[in-house]
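Researcher: Please translate sequence to structure tokens.
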Amino acid sequence: MHELGIVVHIVRTLEDVAQENSLTDIRKVTLQIGKVSGIEPDYLVDCWEYYKKKVPLLKYSTLDYEWIEAITICHNCQNTYSTIDYGRECPYCHSGNTVLLQGNECLIKEIAGE
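Model: Translation complete:
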């Protein structure tokens, strides 16, 4: 379960942001999670609920998330397509010369605090 490691990394980033912006209480964090990132949102939220008890800054916080669609580009025909629907093979020219453009991310989109 790599979700706990992700939460630890996010918390460290939030602590840095809080210090830089004189925040003493973070109430809501919104993440953007790529659909092919391998992150299980339910596990991530469970890890958040466990870990936030150890960090006074996050004691009353909630964690929300939004999905980032997985999009792949074909280097042969330059078309983009849904990675989840078609995988690595381009549905237009059937080439395997493709690269994931987005959908593997885990980004902090928004932080609400005081």
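Researcher: Any highlights?
Model: The domain at 3-69+104-113 is CATH 3.30.2320.50 (hypothetical protein PF0899 fold).
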